[in-house]
């Protein structure tokens, strides 16, 4: 079923468009397949989104196996944890709108039939959801996964402990060396630092709510 992409691939007049699609890997056998957008906010700016590239690539196989043709594209993402406390935070909420607008733009311009969305922070996640609501096509959302905690003196530590350590050091309760020790431990790997995955009308596996970003189960979603 191709509710939208037939406008791009079908008919004599679409020959130039088909020629361009051949350059990205489509062939004669693919014109009948629904084209599925794979939207990801992967970047190397923040650990929240580092795992998304491999998840998006894994989804391509699933789309092909199901009879579709994957069309992967990216969007931006910024980190509140890095941006807060200086002028950069003025751009945080704006980034949500940019994400929604950019995903909507690609989906509408290319007339893609459905979408798989990958996000891992508290602006990319709602931005993707906003885009899906506007477009109103079949959509699946996959969350990057929660980060594993670090360890200091045998106790779990997260970015929250780093914020608290800064305050404690300012009050003279702990040393700067202790702050540095906590800082080095709080983010041991890729993932989301803080997020809430919403329950939505779009398909969402219950398994993804609990598995962390390094869990191989996440690649099977």
Task: Fill in the keyword field for this structure.
221 residues; alpha/beta; four-stranded parallel beta sheet; two-stranded antiparallel sheet; lyase
Structure report:
The protein has 221 residues and is α/β, with parallel strands linked by helices. It is 40% helix and 14% strand. The chain has two domains: 6-146 and 190-220, Rossmann fold, CATH 3.40.50; 149-188, no CATH class. It has helices spanning 6-9, 15-23, 52-65, 80-83, 92-110, 124-135, 159-170, 176-185, 207-210, and strands at 35-40, 69-74, 114-119, 138-143, 150-152, 155-157. The protein has a four-stranded parallel β-sheet, sandwiched between helices. The longest helix has 19 residues, at 92-110. Belongs to the IlvD/Edd family.
Total domains, how many? 2
Helix content: 25-40%
Give the spatial strand order of the biggest sheet: 2-1-3-4
**Average of pLDDT:** 88
* Terminal residue distance: 23 Å
Domain Dihydroxy-acid/6-phosphogluconate dehydratase N-terminal: 33-190
Family: Belongs to the IlvD/Edd family.
Pfam family, one: ILVD_EDD_N
GO molecular function: dihydroxy-acid dehydratase activity
């Amino acid at each position: 079923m191709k509710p939208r992409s037939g406008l791009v691939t079908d008919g004599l007049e679409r020959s130039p468009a088909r020629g361009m699609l051949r350059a990205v890997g489509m062939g004669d056998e693919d014109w009948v397949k629904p084209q599925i957008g794979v939207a990801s906010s992967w970047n190397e700016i923040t650990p929240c989104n580092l795992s998304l590239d491999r998840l998006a690539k894994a989804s391509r196989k699933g789309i092909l196996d199901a009879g579709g043709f994957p069309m992967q594209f990216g969007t931006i993402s910024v980190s509140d944890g890095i941006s807060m406390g200086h002028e950069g935070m003025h751009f945080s909420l704006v980034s949500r709108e940019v994400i929604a607008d950019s995903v909507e733009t690609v989906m509408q311009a290319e007339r893609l039939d459905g979408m798989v969305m990958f996000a891992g922070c508290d602006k990319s996640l709602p931005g993707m959801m906003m885009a899906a609501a506007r477009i109103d096509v079949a959509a699946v959302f996959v969350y990057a996964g929660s980060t594993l905690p670090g360890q200091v003196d045998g106790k779990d530590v997260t970015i929250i402990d780093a914020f608290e350590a800064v305050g404690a050091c300012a009050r003279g309760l702990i040393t700067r060396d202790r702050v540095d020790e906590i800082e080095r431990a709080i983010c041991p790997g890729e993932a989301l630092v803080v997020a809430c995955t919403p329950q939505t009308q779009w398909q969402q596996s219950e398994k993804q709510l609990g598995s962390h970003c390094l869990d191989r189960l996440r690649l099977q979603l």
